[in-house]
Amino acid sequence: MTKTSLLDLLAEVQRGAVSPEHATERLANLPFESIGDTHPEARIDHHRALRSGLPEVIYAAGKTPEQTAAIFARMSAAGHDVLATRADAATAEAVLLQTPAAIYHQPARAISLRQSPPSPPRGRIAVLCAGTSDLPVAEEAAVTADLFNTEVLRLYDVGVAGVHRLLAVRPQLATAHAVIVCAGMEGALPSVVGGLVGVPVIAVPTSVGYGASFAGAAALLGMLNSCSPNVTVVNIDNGFGAAFTATLIARATHRP
After folding, report:
1. Is the domain defined by 124-253 classed in CATH 3.40.50.1970?
2. What is this structure's pTM?
């Protein structure tokens, strides 16, 4: 349930196209729904889109494939756009068995289902990654932002080891309302990007690098110490969190 769908439902009641009883049934699962006997531990937050403007997302890691599939199917039945992150192949198979219209984005380890009517994108986000080893995190960000109806510019393999690659895409960067930069190793790329654009840069340290990278900790610390004041940082490998925040920034900045 989104603000738009709620207003549409109330308008239908006002016009007499929908009875108050039927509207009550459709609102019965607000603000949340327990899946019940099959998975009583899961409570779906159908109210989140009304509060934050973006729907609840399923974090599949740590859940069984059956749990994720059941939650995904129930959110689908409620009419939401649905996204599950950190989904392995077994989870994707279970979800697609119950929800065949869903799409598994293997590089991003994400499963998506778009059900909202087509509408113009609300803002533009550029997603950059330093190298192809950072692609899973960058794609998680790109798939998330795309499902949230944001235009996504994918600008990959533009790391500082060959900075001319980054400079070549500078005109495209200039069109974005927010920029997500995913990088491992020493994590230098967000600082360079921050010096080239006049919009917020969300840095995502990735767990890519040799031993002294400490599974992304070195990149995290480097990004936190960035000298570019428009750079802010999310947790290691958190492409989803970066996309969520970038989407809200793009929506606030973009004026149709």
Report:
1. yes
2. 0.82
